[in-house]
Amino acid sequence: MPKPPPSLQQRQQEQIAPAGSPVMFQRWSKLAFAHWTVDPELVQASLPERLAVDTFDGQAWIGLVPFFMERIRPRFLPAAPGLSWFLEMNVRTYVYDRETGRPGVWFYSLDCNQPLAVMIARKFFHLPYFRARMNHRRIGEKIEYHCQRSGSSASTPLTYETKSAAECRNAAPGSLEFFLLERYLLFSSRPNGQLYVGQVNHPPYQFTEIEMQRPLHPALEQAGFPQSKSPSSVLFSPGVDVSVYPLERCN
Questions:
Q1: Whose CA, among 3, 81, 167, 171, lies 20 to 30 Å from 101?
Q2: Which among 214, 90, 207 is positioned nearest to 143, based on CA atoms?
Q3: At residue 154, does pLDDT exceed 80?
Q4: φ, ψ at 104 (rounded to 5°)
Q5: What is the 3 state secondary structure string of the chain?
Q6: Contact yes or no for 95/53 (Cβ under 8 A)
Q7: What residues are paired with 34 via a beta bridge?
Q8: Contact 237, 192 (CB under 8 A)
Q9: For the chain, percent of residues with pLDDT exceeding 70
Q10: Are 87 and 32 a contacting pair, CB within 8 Å?
């Protein structure tokens, strides 16, 4: 029988580092999490059959997450200048595995300005990465973040506030912020429909609420979720150090 939605205990269990050794290390830095509520049926129709939409207060959530990838390196190699630092922005939703009950993330797109990272992620992690022209600039305490996917003329800069770790806190278990931020599994699929799961481990995010200017980015429409309203939640985190574990086939 299909598993029910994950309990809080199951969600907290995913915060524990898995057995085995990581295959990669990286840092996710200066992240902004903009989220919109969406009809769960609309999201469910976009998912593989084995995955169920994960909801909070009866709503599905679509996230737009621009951030900085830093110090990316395989387990036995150092970070390399020109390869290990780049920009990334993803569009995502939240799901759980009907057969195991484990909660995670489903990505609709991951835009990136590092071609090698795009190739590796598509080939070895079966993730929908796209090459993009991306850049940023600091405006006082804010970041103006630009992303234009290759082959698209659509581009809207995102501007969001940055905060220090001292201004941030951890999400309370069971809160909306815990539901949105504390995700340690990703699901991906090959063209033949075979589903995979990958796990990461990192300290819980420290976050605070912020404002984002012009959050309605073309990537949302490209993912099939055009928006006409402001996001229901916008959060900022200074970042986390991440261990990445091998991808596994969902049997």
A1: 171
A2: 214
A3: no
A4: -165, -160
A5: CCCCCCCHHHHHHCCCCCCCCCCEEEEEEEEEEEEEEECHHHHHCCCCCCEEECCECCEEEEEEEEEEEEEEEECCCCCCCCCCCEEEEEEEEEEEECCCCCEEEEEEEEEECCHHHHHHHHHHHCCCEEEEEEEEEEECCEEEEEEEECCCCCCCCEEEECCCHHHCEECCCCCHHHHHHCCCEEEEECCCCCEEEEEEECCCCEEEECCEECCCCHHHHHCCCCCCCCCCEEEEEEEEEEEECCCEECC
A6: yes
A7: 64, 234
A8: no
A9: 100
A10: no
Amino acid at 238: P
**Encoding tokens for residue 161?**
């506030």
The average confidence (pLDDT) of the chain is 95
* Structure tokens belonging to residue 226: 């055009």
Tokens of 169: 């806190």
Give the span between the Cα atoms of 28 and 67, in whole angstroms: 7
Length of the chain: 251
First-to-last alpha carbon distance for the chain, in angstroms, is 15
